Amino acid sequence: MNIDLHKKIKAQKFSSLYLLYGKETYFIDETIQLLVSNVLNDEERDFNLSVYDLEEVPVDAALEDAQTLPFFGDKRVVICKNAVFLTGAKEKSKIDHNLQLLEEYITSPSPNAILIFMVDAEKLDERKKVTKLLKKEAEVFEATMNDEKSLISWIHSEVKQLEVTIEEEAVGILIQYVRGTVTLLVQELHKMAMYVGKNGNITSEVVQLLSSRTIEDNIFELIDCVLSNKVPKAMEIYHDLLKLNEEPIKILSLLSSQFRLLYQVKDLSKRGYGQQQIATHLKIHPYRVKLAAQKATQFSNEYLTTSLNELAEMDYRIKSGQIDKKLAIELFILKQYRR
After folding, report:
1. pLDDT digits (tens, 9 = 90+) for 13-56
2. Which of 150, 179, 235, 294 would you call most buried, defined as having the most Cβ atoms within 10 angstroms of its Cβ?
3. Mean pLDDT score, 234-259
């Protein structure tokens, strides 16, 4: 997240061109709102704010609008959503965009307009002339929150605005549950802030009580209990998953995925990879790497590879009808305990 850009906008230091991209759309939407509210007043928005979906209309229409003089105001704000032609992705629509016209506009933008391009993508294709040109001339905002330190800092900043506090342990649990997705984080924090009330404290118990948990979260807890020799709790979680009609084959697949993650993190760490490098290599959030790294140090490579082989063998035996699928996972949990 680019804090400096927000400071410029609040100081009324505007650019004629903005390029906002990344998977954390919450930050993109927040920046758009900040721009619009600082450039236009309520009355001007009706006349001088336009939004174009570039999967439905050509960029030519947005450029024509940007070159039109503002009505009852000093600036026009033209927002272009889904500028997929700036990436390497295949465009869903058959819209023909005049990119040469866009390149000409970028080199000489209208002084009376603020033209904003939005792209829901992690990367842009900088081999393209239009992308390189826009990145050179525009104010660029990358909507991402990949490092744990920035994410934790942002959470504390957010809860401060909500007039509550949060325990450090609660922060870690919350990040684990939402997989570091900022949009979901915001929703969860607002829900918890309402629950604890003004000047309240969000504890780990509150997070566990109110968080929207996925099957992956329950699987992570199940594995944690298995690896910590908490077999009764592991069995309780497993049976709760069955009561929720979760398919044992799916649970088995997620168990394999988690054990594989532990092995990969342990192996890459031994080879000298840092946690951020591992996260990039495995394409997962750094906080998941941190949790896996903490757990993986407790076990040998032999234990993890043996467990993975047993899970693969179990999958074969279930699908070939040699063992009941519900019983198979129970036996696997008990076997880990006896080691």
Report:
1. 999 999 999 888 888 999 999 999 999 998 899 899 999 999 99
2. 235
3. 86
Quote the pLDDT of residue 179: 65
Distance CA 115, CA 80 (A): 8
Q: How far apart are CA 194 and CA 190, in angstroms?
A: 6
Model confidence pLDDT, tens digit, residues 149-184: 778 888 898 899 899 999 988 888 888 777 657 888
> Going by C-beta distance under 8 Å and a sequence separation of 6 or more, which residues neighbour residue 188?
174, 177, 178, 207, 210, 211, 212
Tell whether the model's pLDDT for residue 213 goes beyond 70. no
Nearest of 297, 284, 234, 290 to residue 257 by alpha carbon: 284
Bridge-based pairing of strands 139-142 and 17-21 is parallel
The more confident residue out of 8 and 298 is 8
- DSSP string of 126-180? TTSHHHHHHHHHSEEEE----SHHHHHHHHHHHHHHTT-EE-HHHHHHHHHHHTT
One-letter amino acid of 7: K
- Could you give the dihedral angle defined by the CA atoms of residues 286, 255, 263 and 274, in that order, rounded to the nearest 10 degrees? 0
DSSP letter assigned to residue 76: E
DSSP per position, 30-69:
HHHHHHHHHH--HHHHHHHEEEEETTTS-HHHHHHHHTSP
Average pLDDT, the chain: 88
Phi, psi for residue 196 in degrees, rounded to 5: -85, -20
Measured N-to-C along each axis, helices 59-66 and 99-107 cross at an angle, to the nearest 10 degrees, of 30
pTM of the model: 0.64
**86 C-beta neighbours (distance < 10 Å), count:** 24
Instruction: Write the burial class of residue 122 (CB in 10 Å: 0-12 exposed, 13-18 middle, 19+ buried).
Output: middle
Q: How many angstroms separate the CA atoms of 78 and 68, rounded?
A: 11
191 DSSP 8-state letter: H
Find, among 104, 100, 68, 97, the residue nearest to 80 by Cα.
Answer: 97
The DSSP-derived string for 253-271 is HHHHHHHHHHHHHHHHHHT
